[in-house]
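Weekly sync, protein design subgroup
Attendees: M.S., D.O., the rotation student, P.L. (late)

Item 1: inverse folding check
M.S. brought a backbone from last month's batch and wanted to see whether the design step gives back something sensible before we order anything. D.O. pointed out we never logged the input encoding, so this time it goes straight into the notes. Structure tokens as presented (136 positions):
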């Protein structure tokens, strides 16, 4: 087991649905520590930069519009295998394919409005944490 850090975002639909506490509770209950948390409104430029890897994909423009539609809550999660653990807690990107008991299966409406984002690797976690928490 390795101590890792990963980035979580509770997306605009999660904030709107009043499930910030529910998401953070699930992270903590799984043994992850919250090392930083910040609510912010992403600008169009910031959302485009954060999701630059998806530029050119059919859902990119809509994703940027959605991610800037309201505040988000970014957090740094720390723990054993935090990247994978967070992905297990979130479930598959498409809530219809997510396992029962995961955030996306329980709380998400669509593949776009899927409540949470989580880093997909230790390398990307470093980049994403720096994006939201340059001081950490
Ligand atoms: P996330 O894990 O934040 O990574 C990219 C996001 O794009 C994804 O969650 C969804 O919110 C959104 N998205 C919309 N449509 C798709 C799609 N067809 N495949 C993957 N991601 C999508």
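Designed sequence read out in the meeting:
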């Amino acid at each position: 087991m390795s101590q890792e850090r990963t980035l979580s975002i509770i997306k605009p639909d999660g904030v709107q649905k009043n499930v910030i506490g529910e998401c953070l509770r699930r992270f903590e209950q799984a043994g992850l520590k919250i090392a930083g948390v910040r609510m912010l409104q992403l600008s169009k430029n910031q959302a485009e930069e954060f999701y630059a890897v998806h530029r050119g994909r059919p859902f990119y423009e809509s994703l940027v519009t959605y991610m800037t539609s309201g505040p988000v809550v970014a957090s740094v999660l720390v723990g054993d295998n935090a990247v994978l653990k967070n992905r297990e807690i979130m479930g598959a990107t498409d809530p219809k394919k997510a396992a029962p008991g995961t955030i996306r299966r329980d709380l998400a409406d669509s593949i776009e409005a899927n409540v949470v984002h989580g880093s997909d690797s230790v390398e990307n976690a470093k980049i994403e944490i720096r994006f939201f928490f340059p001081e950490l």
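Discussion: The longest strand covers residues 72-80. Residues 54, 59, 63, 93, 111-112, 114, 117 surround adenosine-3',5'-cyclic-monophosphate (CB under 6 Å).
Action: P.L. to compare against the previous round before Friday.
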